């Protein structure tokens, strides 16, 4: 089995006396698609913030491609290859989650200069959307 691309080893964080996340473990290997689900207040966003350097864990460690990411700022994490986005429902009006994932992957490929047939589709979608929209800013 291959080494994980992203690994969280016993991550935890406290805010004052409140333990928001405790003992979180995760391993994601190349080409894996993983979801993180849970009820409101379970710590999902806090985990993403720790994985991407927005928050520094108070316990445990994050590894990206085997490299310890301790103390890295979000911009350093982006350079290393991991980032987070914020939900913005007005970006692309597509209801099918699979299609949204395809577009996200194609955008990722564009940024990494990996051209796929999906990349051209995203370019076309973006161009058509820009041509057909007027903005009231």
Q: Compute the number of helices.
A: 4
Q: How many whole angstroms does the radius of gyration measure? A: 18 Å
Model regions low in confidence, pLDDT < 50 over at least 5 residues: 133-137
Number of strands: 4
State the major sheet. Answer: 4 strands, antiparallel
How confident overall, as mean pLDDT?
Answer: 81
Helices and strands, with pairings:
Blueprint: E1 6-15, E2 18-28, H1 44-51, E3 59-64, E4 67-68, H2 74-80, H3 97-111, H4 117-132
Antiparallel strand pairs: 1-2, 1-3, 3-4
Helix pairs in contact: 3-4
How would you describe this structure in keywords?
137 residues, four-stranded antiparallel β-sheet, 21% strand, disordered C terminus
Question: Could you walk me through the main structural features you see in this protein, from its secondary elements to its overall organization?
Answer:
The chain has 137 residues and is α+β, with helices and mostly antiparallel strands. It is 34% helix and 21% strand. It is built from 4 helices and 4 strands, in the order ββαββααα. A 4-stranded antiparallel sheet has the order 2-1-3-4, with helices on one face. α3 crosses α4. The N and C termini lie far apart (51 Å). The relative contact order is 0.12.
Kindly summarize this structure in a few lines.
By secondary structure, the protein is of the alpha+beta class. The protein has helices spanning 44-51, 74-80, 97-111, 117-132, and strands spanning 6-15, 18-28, 59-64, 67-68. A hairpin with a 2-residue loop joins β3 and β4.
């Amino acid at each position: 089995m291959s080494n994980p691309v992203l690994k969280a080893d016993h991550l935890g964080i406290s805010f004052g006396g409140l333990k928001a996340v405790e003992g979180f473990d995760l391993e994601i290997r190349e080409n894996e698609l993983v979801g993180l689900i849970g009820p409101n207040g379970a710590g999902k966003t806090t985990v993403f913030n720790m994985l991407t350097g927005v928050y520094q864990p108070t316990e445990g460690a994050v590894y990206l491609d085997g490299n310890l990411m301790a103390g890295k700022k979000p911009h350093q994490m982006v350079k290393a290859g991991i980032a987070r986005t914020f939900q913005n429902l007005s970006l692309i009006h597509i209801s099918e989650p699979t299609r949204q994932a395809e577009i996200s992957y194609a955008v990722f490929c564009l940024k990494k200069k990996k051209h796929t047939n999906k990349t051209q589709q995203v370019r076309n979608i973006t161009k058509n959307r820009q041509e057909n929209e007027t903005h009231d800013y």
